[in-house]
Records
---
Amino acid sequence: MENRTPRRPARYDILFEPVRIGPVTAKNRFYQVPHCNGMGRAFPSSMAAMRGVKAEGGWGVVVTEQCDVHHSGNHQREIRIWDEKDLPYLTRATDEIHRHGALAGVELAHNGSYVGNLESRTIPVAPSLKAVRGNLPITARAMDKDDIRAVRRWHRTAALNARRAGFDIVYIYAGHDMTLPVHFLSRRHNHRTDEYGGSLENRARLLRELIEDAKEAVGDTCAVAVRFGVDELMGPRGIGAEDEGRDVVEMLAELPDLWDVNLSNFDNDGQTSRFSDEAFQQNYVKFVKSVTSKPVVGVGRFTSPDTMVSMIKGGTLDLIGAARPSIADPFLPRKIEEGRFDDLRECIGCNICVAGDKASVPMRCTQNPTMGEEWRRGWHPEYIPPKDTDDTVLVVGAGPAGLEAARALGQRGYDVMLADRDRELGGRVTLESRLPGLGEWARVRDWRLTQLRRMPNVQLLPDNEITAEMALEAECSLVAVATGAAWRADGVGRYHSFPMEIPADTPVFTPDDIMAGRLPSGRVVVFDDDHYYMGGVIAERLAEHGCEVTFVTPDSVVSSFTQFTAEQKRVQRRVMEKCAAVHTSKALLRAEPGAARLGCVYTGRETEVAADAFVLVTGMVPRDELYTGLRAYGEDVLGAAGIRRVVRLGDCLGPGIIAAAVHSGHLFARTLDTAITDETPYRRENVELDWDQPLPLSSGGVWAREKRQGHGRQL
């Protein structure tokens, strides 16, 4: 990125004022709140590099994901600070953050009954006897006074070790229905009758003590923050901003150095753009500043600088908190500071970042393909190496893969032609963003087109159907085919491996038909074997059109993958509200005149439902005719035309999610290829084995045998 003289309008100056937080000062009001990332202690180098890039991008404060304080409340995919052995990689993270002048924060946590301690096998603890979250057959035991004293000791030791690791802000985490402090606060979790139960003052006792302990231990040099979910959106069954949520803040108002406030649980806090707008939490958290003199940070998927200013000037927040917007654009603060508003890569609120963490893999982002690749591949969100070949590139298909490939290639300095058969560019993003709730997804297209239209070395060629013959005549040495994929009309997907029985005169539609405006009428069966967002939004679109929709899925819940994006319950509620009937654990077996035969996926028992038409949301097939046509010419003909390589990108290579398509396009721009390589194309974390320590297995075990045979020292 170029160094530019700041030229932002003066109304944004307030965002760059320093803010005092206890004994430390944030250089501006941009605050990357704690967020998980799927890296944690399994990928510590990736975690540290990712946080460092945020600091480089101008965030005044960069905070870790939750950091477990003890093995009795351990969350396998996060970081930990059990003892001094965890300090080296945490210190690496604080060094990366401090390198760019940001404050480093750490979110200390004990997860209580939220986790089953599958790694440590320690019986979980809770304020009262409690089955652990989810479907694990584990019960957390009720804590006694010794346990409470131990929790306080573990937090205090962790705070001291956090200071040793270089952290400037130490959190007490009482949010998202995930940790012991909020479990003690909650009447649902806390049924004690001693001084830690009953009244709110008693239920808040542990939170107060943890804050006081941290202040006494590190408060002279580190700020002590509280992260608190002020409303659980559960009415009288839970904590609410109009009652106990407000009461807790009033009760402890001046005790911490910072209030980090949001909604609980995370499904409420991290709502997707399908179900919420920017700044959607404002009405819940705006009371906090009226009851405390301490600085307040909150979130709301902020992407608009004007909204950020209104949060400050309107008295809602002192610091602009962000998790997802800082993932989509780690350089968001610097771009605002430099007045480069057209360069802001706005979060689309799809929660693919959340899905990566929930799947325990390094986080990815639909908008930012470099997320999670900062250390592994050495990718930077703003800088990309200049071109190192004399290639010219033809990219065919201006969907998410083609747009990103052309943009990044253009940034590198390559001469690029980007052609698409449609007059309106954007491919699947343009079409899908017109479906219910997906409007903000158009940002994937809009940001890239804004960048491309500035590049004199990139030609945009809409309304151009490129044939193999035309590609041969294009005088380009690289041809990237990003022509996308088509939805199948034969029912083949995850459940059906072979085409279904569908009479020739049966009205059968696919998502491609619906997005093109070809809509059925009457009684419509939507068969969703895709299990992500498409089946649900198609059903909603048809219901809006006036169809009587029956939703059928072989899975046990609607849109099951959306459990990873923290929206499944909202998706299922919406589908149940919009559809006449919802059938889970059933597959569409065959279509008959006026009816559909459904089969239970467990018993095979068949039922019949009325149907005038069918929409099959099952599998996809790459549109790779151009690729296969070019490859059929052979190397001699391609070479004679000056083409040294033909590659496929995105859905044309392998149908998937938009984030995968964007990543595929970016990978091609960086490497000029997308083929599988013999060597691993990224760095891995190595674990050094200490062969000097006795093995815990018998001498006949495989590890002992490998040691005797002299096998290597690294995993």
Note: The chain has 26 helices and 29 strands.
---
Amino acid sequence: MSDGSTTSSVKMRIKREIGGFKGLFGRVRHRWWFRILAVLALLAGLFVFLVWLFIARNLPSVDTLKNYEPPLPTNVRSVEGLPIHSYARERRVQLSFAEYPKLLVEAYMSAEDKTFFEHHGVDFPGLARAAFQGLISGSTPRGTSTITQQVAKNLLVGNETSYLRKAKEGILAWRMEDTLTKQQIMELYLNSIELGRNAGGVEAASQAYFGKELDKLTLPQMAYLAILPKGPSNYDPERHTQRALDRRNWVLGQMLDNGFIDQAQHDAAVAAPLGTVPRQTPRFERLGGYFVEEVRRQLIDKFGETDESGPYSVYSGGLWVRTSLDPKLQQYAQKALRDGLLRYDRGRGWSGPIGRADVGKSWLQSFLNTNIGVDYEDWRAGVLIDRTGDVWQIGFDDGTTGTLPRWAATMPVRGQGGQAFDALKPGDIVAVAPESGSQWSLRSIPKVSGGMVVEDPRTGRILAMQGGFDSRLQAFNRATQAQRQPGSTIKPIVYAAALEQGMTPTSIVVDGPFCVWQGANLGQKCFRNFGNARGAGPKTLRWGIEQSRNLMTVQIANQTGMDHVVDLMQRIGVSRQKFPPYLSYALGAGETTVLRMVNAYSILVNHGRALNPSLIDFVQNRKGAVVWPENWRPCEGCNAPDWKGGAMPRPVNRAKQVIDALSAYQMVHIAEGVVQRGTATVLRDLNRPMMGKTGTTSGPTDVWFVGGTPQMIGGLYIGYDTPTNLGGYAQGGSIAAPIFKEFAIPAFEGMEKVPFTAPQGIRMVRIDRASGKPVTGAWPSSDPLSGVIWEAFKPDTEQRRGRRGQDETQETKAVEKKVAPKKQEGDSDFLQREGGIY
């Protein structure tokens, strides 16, 4: 190039265009809007991570709801399988979705979540609206929860009111919709919601508010139940009647708008009243109060009380308990004992109020909180509200009131004197009985008490139990918990020990003075008969127990050896631990319970085989499987209407033999004489095989009777909780035995008359009742005072006849050859003709 020319340098960069996604990403990643989106995505990812880290990660698994079992009460059934009681802290009945009426489901949808079957568990617009309103108002978010969210809250999250809870609720609801069907979710909801009056779930609420099952409800009643999830106390039918009506009618309007009902149904339902019933306790709660409470104690010992105790807890495990309680026998025992207590207590004056309540503005609620009631004939418990002149206003647990005039409360106050009317004060809870109109008269709850038990001696099952006058007034169960001296009812155990050690029913014992040296400190102890009765001289062992002679008893115990006597007392269950071997224990000085004494007599009737007194036959879980006793097996074919020709089942009896069977039967046979000729003759006109023994303790402070038939043994005592003299006239034969008779008359009606069965080896011999010697040429008669009776002997223990006549020799040979005698009927033939003594 020539001089003067200019030169220029141009630098160029050549880029190669990249195609595809990578090229596109390279072209847009520097754009401003892309960067904004990237930041938002990062924040969203971070938000999701934080939600997972702090909320979702620790949420409970929704899978647990597939097998969710709501807490259910334990239901107790009688021997016939009928419900008699329920152990519950809340009412609850679990139903399947198919068991809920369609209109009821639609009522709850209209009140709570009309699009339930359309959404996926979360109402996002509603959540946003609630959150915004909460932020504006400065309050926590409320409402807008779908039914799915409410299930999540009730069963998995809890009731905390916060944004965090709402977030957890929403996440779980979304997961639930992926795991469960809509029907399963609705079922969980209707079974678990709390609806007031201690009702969990809609079926329980139906019973609590309307006193009937769910499928019996009307449309307006279903609509009322649908308003309760928002707050049962807000729509209480008694305190907020109009508010409840307005809200119910709103639900009916929503059902009309949603097309669930037509206009005619809507108008008729809106015009209907609420139709609720007053708050009430379960109808079967009062039957066998002491029995069902003892069952509850045993169940708690076995399964525990709450969820933490295991899957079969008493208050939430949903157990079904079959007991041995016979409702009819329970009613007879309950009435007999109560009548006996009232007979003894009559004429002793008013015993005072049975409780206290605050009679301010809400006397009814205060009265209900005491849970005091009286369940005897037409008596009721009432609280004294106010006095006007000679008339008290008295209120009852159903909200009604009545009057108690002076003339109906004139009995003297026990231990103080003066009329009971003047001793009454506002707030006193008293027992009253109806008079004319709205007037009531004062009644006195007896201060004396007692306990009674009835047992099947073939199985040990307890058929009835009464532990006092009324379980709602006196929770202490005197049938199982009261430790009392049994008095002369211990004597059959003492005599049974003597029979085991070789004595016979005809052994001769002197009814005379008996003293023992107790050592330098205690000196000499001399025993005496009841009432200081003089000794009768040499008498048979049978006579001694029929007449309940103390002197003969201590001599027999002394000859037998008190070590043997107290050992049998422990083996047969009278005492948990062996009593000291002192002669006073042969007269009933040791303490025991009615249940133990009844079981001991039942063992004697059961040929000496051990019995474990039981109140519970078996326990089923909520699905019907038997969970107790272990290895329980059903009796297949036991209820078959006809015999199919197979062999008779003969279950193996594995019971322990606690007393020789022959000795046990001998004692039962002797105790039959107590009813025929002894201290319990008040029972003789029941006209059936019976054994028993009366008892009266020192003082006397307690009176007893224990005894019964081959099918039923009962026992009872009466006495003050703090041992107090009952009066010199008080005896087991005059007070306790008549109570048992009052029970027995209806209880034994229609029951087959069967004799006590004798074990193999027992020999029935005719004896002279006074001397105990065998007789010939004479036969026992139906006269209880007959001079000749049948006596039970072990092989080769009866006395030999002093002279054998021709007739006797021929009779003996005929019996040995098992043919009828030629001139005189033999014992065996006579027994068979008369029905037998087995």
Note: The radius of gyration is 40 Å.
